[in-house]
Amino acid sequence: MNIPSPTPPRQKRVSVALLLLFILLGWLFFFVYQRPPSLPEVVPIPVTARGDLAADEQSTIALFRSASPAVVYITNIEVRRNIFSLNIHEIPKGTGSGFLWDKQGRVVTNYHVIESASRVEVTLADRSTWQATLVGVAPDKDLAVLQISAPAEKLTPLPLGESHNLLVGQKVFAIGNPFGLDQSLTSGIVSALGREIQSATGRTIQGVIQTDAAINPGNSGGPLLDSAGRLIGVNTAIYSPSGASAGIGFAVPVDVVAQVIPEIIRYGRLIRPGLAIAVADDQIARRVGVAGVLVMNVQPGSGAEAAGLRATRRIGGEIILGDVILAVDGRKVSSYNDLRNALDHYKVGDTVTLTIERADRQMQLPLVLEEVG
């Protein structure tokens, strides 16, 4: 039997040395060729101190914090019935804005925001949602009042300002829910005063404020504020070929709002002064050569009858035209819309002097205004 000879001590030492050499070379290879390159040293950039905000920034921030709790999100919900299953579905028809009028939970918005709604929801700034009931509307002024049952501690009404003394160029702010983006603030200036826009009924709203503060779909019914955070108008319409803000927005002036809203709250509608007459359509009046408002009928027992205003009548086969109203207290009127706008400056019971044309002769006729439907 062959027995292997033991490895000489010297050869064993050489083998161990070679093994250690190979291990060392392997580590060197790894660190030289396989280790990722060293990363550059990153030196932190110090944050520059902001310092105090500018005075106008501070005032805008304060204005938003003060006024935004009064601005609400309005959802117009329509009820539809499936013609196949007869199931009833509630579908959001549209959204808009509004604002808290008083601590009793009354909310002001545009009439067109809640028009034809089956149900209306009001979401406050704290995200709580309340079902609203309709107090009343004034479609000719595009205004409406809703009622919610939120507790008084959740309600922060806006302070009222004035619109008769506004100046072109002064700062204004709009808060609302454009495209559903609630509690959005935009700013601008009063671009023009005394504009006219059409309401949902086709009547013109006079004395409207024009602003370049961005107003978009969803802003309707929200407040327009002055730099003191006071309500000066209700954002109502925009002029835009694209449907988005083009820098031309319109707001119903607060002087009109302050007159209309208390009447809606008290009576559920706007109490309008009138003459208790029926007039000819403007186009028909023009066809017969009339340049004012042609009286077609006078209500029996009315102030107009007592004043002697004459209606259009037929005598035999001939039609005798009635009186033509040319002015109210010197304010010229050439259409029914002009007449209604002129009477908006008065209250029921006021006496006005009409300038009329009768049988090619002008005359003055005083009469007392009365409530009309």
UniProtKB/TrEMBL annotation:
Keywords: Hydrolase, Protease, Serine protease. GO terms for molecular function: serine-type endopeptidase activity. Transmembrane segments: none annotated. It comes from the Bacteria. SUPFAM superfamilies: PDZ domain-like, Trypsin-like serine proteases. Belongs to the peptidase S1C family. This is Trypsin-like peptidase domain-containing protein.
